[in-house]
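Example 163.
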Amino acid sequence: MSTAPSPALTLRDGGQADLGEVMTSMIEAFAPEFGEAWTAAQCGGILPLPGVRLILAKLGTTPAGFALARVIAGEAELLLLGVRPRFRRGGIGGALLVATVAYAREAGADHIHLEMRDGNPALSLYRTAGFVQIGRRPRYYRGTDGRLIDALTLSLRLVGAHG
Ligand SMILES: CC(C)(COP(=O)(O)OP(=O)(O)OC[C@H]1O[C@@H](n2cnc3c(N)ncnc32)[C@H](O)[C@@H]1OP(=O)(O)O)[C@@H](O)C(=O)NCCC(=O)NCCS
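Predicted structure in complex with coenzyme A:
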């Protein structure tokens, strides 16, 4: 029995021309009940700002996910990380996270922060990458059912860290 080879994963920087691809992944990756997805206008608005980087993941020619980050004055923030459900648990989210951390380090950031909804299983991805919880914002997110959910602030120290 022969099986078709899996398409290769590639990561590359993206820009305004890639907003359609980003939204394809955005709409699938972020569950609508938490209202976490950004609109194309929000993404398009942030891309020209200093220190912003969009990283796109593709499997062959198929959009699989993306990361959006910003570095300002020595602080990096991971703004969005999403992988389309059918491509999850294959290392794409981890690869995007590694690429984002590398960008933050190259851009001179001391730390990279992110905020996530309490209860999001992505926590284990971040913990594996070395992030630690540094804060909690009570009742920060509002689900579409009106439920209020805490936000966790996670941080990874880059200065003096290896990798
Ligand atoms: C979080 C997300 C980006 C992970 O993408 P992914 O491609 O599945 O990540 P990886 O395959 O690289 O996962 C690496 C490791 O993270 C952990 N992990 C990732 N997703 C997990 C989940 N749903 N439950 C438990 N552990 C998980 C596991 O340890 C996993 O390794 P393993 O598969 O060998 O067990 C993806 O689930 C997603 O898009 N979620 C919705 C959007 C979102 O919440 N983004 C984060 C906002 S802060």
